Amino acid sequence: MAGSVVHIINDLNGNGGAERMVVEMAQRQTRFSATVIVWKGANNQLLEDAAFAAVTIIAVKPSSPRSIARAWRAMRAADLVHVHLFPSLYFCALLPFRKIYTEHNTWNRRRARRWLRGIERWVYGRYDCVAAISAPVRDHLSEWLAPMVAKIHIVENGVCLDRFAPARDRRPREDGRFYIGMVGSFTEKKDQETIVRALQGLPDNVHAVFAGIGDRRPLVEDLAVALGVRERAHFSGLVRDIPGFLSRLDLYVQSSHWEGFGVAVVEAMAADLPVLVSDVGGLAVVVDNDDYRFPPKNHGRLADRVRELAGDDEKYRNATAYARRRAQGFSIDRTVSSYEDLYDLIKPGPPALTPAGADPSASRFRSPSHPS
Known about the structure:
Radius of gyration: 21 Å
Low-confidence stretches: 351-364, 367-372
Distance between the termini: 35 Å
């Protein structure tokens, strides 16, 4: 190993893309041995995933001095600390180690409070560099942290593509049903309501299936009742087997108000599912074809797109082929390699060599062009 890195993230709940990406990165890092530290509560479902048994994970409990000491020793021995998500961003800013932060979203509520800008600039300034998971994430963060633009690199997220074997031809079903689905927590950001509203404008054979938990689920269920589509809206709760969930769908929809990237969409494409996404931020980066995007909150346009794919075999096949090709550009191995290049740049010791005349902060960590 060329070095070691400690990832710090709030928790390892099974409902978030960033959490799964962190443990999958830790599992695959080759130039840097990796340890994962979690500290916020007991919401660590991924700890039970047998696929990650080989990953060293330290669950810190405030009531356990032993776990705190173990985490501190791991950080002190590492070449650098890699921090993910808020509030870990704030707490870890005070750590006296070399560190990198990954920004996972184009927007957060803190940016609605202008008085926080100075504090945020100080916090982000405590990190040796910042990785943005897509160009829109970098652009929004650069605007918020104007003096720090040179610190921000793009490292796009990736997915373990071999977890999502191509599915059998899903059509037609004996019962004539056409299932659309979405994976994501029930929060304001994800906007499952738009999918429920779209059901009103779709034939009765179209059903929506939701995987995820969250405070807004009762509101979404109540909306389905009020609109008279509750029998066609199915709520699966927390789903551990995402490949299995996706294999039962005909079409994947991501209706988010904002996204930094769209890991769940890449997973759906890797499973040979056609996708439709709201035309926002990172989702528009992942799905770069206007035919498979719709304006956010526009349930009428979403219903039109679903109807087209459900009723036209050729359009459905074309959408499936696009998804299959597009997914291949978002491998977790590519993401790991890009991060390890970035680690080499900031870890202690001789700096990484930069070709003469090159800009050391340029986009060498940006992903290569993806097939479309």
